[in-house]
Specification:
With 188 residues, the chain is α+β, with helices and mostly antiparallel strands. The protein has a seven-stranded mixed β-sheet. Strands 6-7 form a two-stranded antiparallel ribbon. Pfam families: AhpC-TSA.
Length: 188
C-alpha cells in the first residue's frame, strides 16, 4: 500500500486538534504565549502505550531547554478525550496534550497507522510515533517516523541537534531535500 510521507522541506499540513483543556490548536504553529517561533509536534500512540508515556514524561525534562531555543511542543494522539483524561494521571508534562487525531489527519501527516490488536489495547486505529519540527515559515525542518513504539529519537541528541540548527552562525539548512542534494553537487 502506498502511503504519503511528509518530506523534509515540505509545507506542514494545516491540521487542527483539540487540547485536553478544550482549546483548538493548529499543529505546527507555536502557541502565541510560548515565545517560540518553531514547534515540535509529537504524535504518540495513545494511553495504551507505556513507551509513549515514558517518552512524553522524558520530553518534559527538555521542555524549558527547547523553549530557550525557540521550540514549542505539542503532543497529540488519536485517543478520545476520555482516554486522554485517564492517561493524564500517568503524565507529568507542562506542554499541551491534544486528542482526537482522525484517520484523515494521520494520513496527511504520513505516520504509520496501526489497528488495535484487541479491545483491551484500544478501540480505534492509532498512529505510530512521529516527530515533526516545523520552522517559522511553516516548513518541516526535522521529521522522524517509526512503524513501532520502540524506535524514537533520543531526546538529548535531538535537543542538541536543534540547538545547532537554531544557531544562526551555523547557517544549517533543511537536510534531505532535493534542493539540498543539488547544492551539494557544486562542491564536487
Amino acid at each position: 500500500m502506498d502511503q504519503h510521507k511528509l518530506a523534509a522541506g515540505d509545507r506542514f499540513p494545516e491540521l487542527h486538534v483539540t487540547t485536553f483543556e478544550g482549546e483548538s490548536v493548529r499543529l505546527g504553529q507555536p502557541r502565541p504565549d510560548s515565545g517560540a517561533n518553531w514547534q515540535m509536534v509529537v504524535v504518540y500512540r495513545g494511553r495504551h502505550c507505556p513507551l509513549c508515556t515514558k517518552y512524553l514524561n522524558q520530553l518534559e525534562g527538555f521542555r524549558e531547554e527547547l523553549l530557550e531555543i525557540g521550540v514549542d511542543i505539542v503532543a497529540v494522539s488519536a485517543d478520545s478525550q476520555a482516554q486522554l483524561a485517564a492517561h493524564k494521571s500517568q503524565l507529568e508534562v507542562g506542554f499541551p496534550l491534544a486528542y482526537g487525531l482522525t484517520q484523515d489527519q494521520m494520513e496527511a501527516l504520513g505516520v504509520y497507522i496501526s489497528l488495535p490488536r484487541s479491545e483491551q489495547e484500544t478501540d480505534h486505529n492509532f498512529a505510530e510515533p512521529g516527530l515533526f519540527v516545523v520552522n517559522e515559515e511553516g516548513n518541516l525542518h526535522v521529521v522522524d517516523l517509526s512503524n513501532n513504539p520502540f524506535v524514537r529519537p533520543e531526546l538529548q541528541a535531538l535537543v542538541n541537534g536543534l540547538r545547532w540548527i537554531r544557531d544562526p552562525g551555523n547557517h544549517y539548512p533543511i537536510r534531505g531535500t532535493r534542493k539540498d542534494v543539488d547544492s551539494q553537487l557544486q562542491y564536487r
